[in-house]
Specification:
Elements (H helix, E strand, L loop, with lengths): L12 E6 L4 H5 L1 H9 L3 E8 L11 H18 L4 E7 L8 H14 L3 E5 L13 H14 L10 H5 L9 E5 L8 E4 L4 H9 L8 H18 L8 E8 L10
Parallel strand pairs: 1-2, 1-4, 2-3, 4-5
Antiparallel strand pairs: 5-7, 6-7
Helix pairs in contact: 3-7, 4-5
């Protein structure tokens, strides 16, 4: 399949999926900031309400409202105005047809060149990256992309409602095991925006300085892996060509 070449690919629309509020800010908000700064339209879809996260005693409704507000504020800081929430329960996300149908509908509506999702494979080096909801999010997105998004007979009620089948060019997965990473984006110039976005999720970070040190160290390691200059920072992805120049029907 094709190899992603940023210089030759036209990207005008991107749809990003996450299991919880703050997942995208850890995994991809620097890349999102570079896209929006270049005029790319980016939208977020958060599958759960993050209602099982936090460190104080609040009702589920209060936690949900807080996490929605935090995610909207974080998204705005990196140039994203539209955040969709699917409302699934935190810790109970499954790649079922209720979720997949909503993913298909969003992709067919926006018709992006890139869909960003969480990786489907467990990362044994740092298992916290592979929360069961993360894996379920990645699986739901991947299953939806092929074949359902491009198959008019999948969820026919969507086709009947005017959401025509669509061949997505690229799937970018974040939170990948190191051996799957095949593309990196430099985020040095927008790194402070990434940190600012992460700081919006105060309900989730009892030690903000430690969180920031970790994110900087991880970004520096990816900058080094990309062969960038000293002090450069980057985010890593597993990029998959869904419909490349050499793609034929069914293969």
């Amino acid at each position: 399949m094709g190899i992603f070449d940023p210089a030759s690919e036209e990207i005008t629309r991107v749809l990003c999926f996450a299991a919880h509020p703050d997942d995208l800010d850890f995994g991809a908000s620097g890349t999102v900031a570079t896209w929006t700064a270049a005029g790319v339209h980016v939208e977020y879809c958060i599958m759960t309400d993050g209602d099982a996260g936090g460190f104080d005693a609040r009702t589920t409704a209060e936690i949900t409202a807080t996490r929605h507000a935090e995610q909207r504020a974080a998204a705005a800081l990196v140039g994203v105005d539209t955040v969709h929430f699917l409302g699934e329960a935190d810790g109970y996300l499954e790649p079922n047809h209720r979720v997949m149908k909503q993913v298909v509908a969003l992709i067919r509506t926006l018709r992006p060149q890139v869909v960003l999702g969480m990786h489907t494979e467990r990362n044994w080096d740092r298992i916290q990256r592979s929360h069961p909801d993360h894996l379920a999010c990645g699986e739901a997105v991947t299953r939806a992309i092929y074949p359902a998004v491009e198959n008019p007979f999948a969820y026919p009620e969507l086709e009947e409602a005017g959401l025509a089948a669509y061949k997505l060019p690229w799937l970018w997965l974040y939170g990948a095991p190191a051996e799957r990473e095949n593309h990196r984006v430099e985020i040095t110039a927008v790194f402070e925006k990434k940190l600012a976005a992460l700081r919006q999720h105060l309900s989730q970070h009892p030690d903000v300085p430690a969180m920031e040190r970790y994110v900087r160290a991880q970004s520096a390691a990816q900058g080094a892996a990309a062969g960038l200059g000293p002090g450069a920072l980057a985010e890593a992805f597993h990029v998959v060509a869904v419909n490349a120049a050499d793609t034929i029907a069914g293969f």
